[in-house]
Write a structure and sequence with these properties.
mainly alpha, 491 residues, single chain, disordered C terminus
Length: 491
Amino acid sequence: MSPTFRALQNPNYRLWASGAIVSNTGTWMQRIAQDWLVLTQLTDNSGVAVGIVTGLQFAPVLLLAPVAGVIADRFERRKVLITTQVTSGVLALILGLMVVTDIAQLWHVYVLATLLGIVAAIDAPARQAFVSELVPIEDLPNAVGLNSASFHGGRLIGPGIAGLLISWFGTGPVFLINAATFGAVVFSLTHMRTEELRKQPPRTGGDKGAVRAGLSYVRHRPDLILILAIVGMVGTFGLNFQLTSALMARLEFDKGPGQYGILGSIMAIGSLGGAFLAARREHPRMRLVIGATLVFGVASIVAALMPTYWSFAIALIPVGLSSLTMMTAANATIQLSTAPEMRGRVMALYMAIFMGGTPVGAPIIGWIGESFGARYTILLGGVMSIITAVAAVFWLRRSQGARMRVYWQQGPRLLVTTTRSRAEQVDAGASGAAVAGGADSGAAVAGAAGSGASASASSGGASNGAGVSAPVEEAVRAEKAHETDDAKSAA
């Protein structure tokens, strides 16, 4: 089997992936329908109202992260996911029935968005950590990449279908269809070979102090803190395309729901490409996270300046590619470098910071769109992403003693040496620059060639050929040792 799809060799993962693509398509359909319902039916093109709905939906992820992480570590994740998926389906069904019967009001959407956010807050860390139970540890980066491919495959299909359905029948039926799609995930979870699931680490100690232990673990891991800071800033100000695309389609280009849906599908082309590229990487590095953040910022600014609807749509492809590369690299790096018994709590914190910034960013973005124009909503995200990437480079320079030198050799190159490792050299190709350095956490920066955030690296000082950071190596060794102990116990 192709290295890109090697995680699909596992029967349970194949079942999970098949259910996920159906549910992800429905989720993206509902996102389009919900924004269009608020923007055009329940308000008079109010970007603030759309921002509030988005914020309410993501606020619980921030507030409930500690509890959600403990739930993911303390309870059987498969059963937790069955419960959250059924509940999400019921909430989508209620909203669909209210819209179809023409009784939906804006405050109803606010309430249901909040409830859906509460369920999502519990679902997210369990879903992220559950992947490690479906595949061997060496296949985990591939599984994370394929998960992203599934999510953005739904993003490619869902918005277009939603746009057509809204044009033909209105928003109500879209919510009803999404409610039905949750059944696909429930079916996959209830038909898995549970005896083949990789065991969760033993639950040591009580729940008291579990949250504090998780926070303490992260506090002593500067590599994790750097990734969390990056995804927090980008997630708050840059990854609001659910809102910004609606504002651009409606206010800047005067388009309808069909054209709005097309924007999401076109952006998903780049995201899907980034997901498949990520699936091929065996060991993602932190430099890819930082480099993709920089490219995402530049691509966002370019998209914001596009003069026509179609030029804007095409410019979203590199935006989708670079954003997905950043998200997938960050996710896989954190999962691989986190101790198995802490994974649920760390992923809960990751999701809280990544998605929890939306309640702050979305209303601000909506207000900027109303006050200054839709283009400025995307410009803000691009500028903030570039600032974040540059700040990360300077932090590495100060904390790791990095020194940088720019030179030209068949394209622009940037050589970075640190006091913690030998030099690494990265070729960013003809249209990008790269920064690569070796820190004990694998921290460095890589630019992107062409329109995407991928770069080929030549490692010059890693302790192994793949260039995996020390925390990743330790986590892999610990997990394999745990599997060996389990096998001996079974024997």
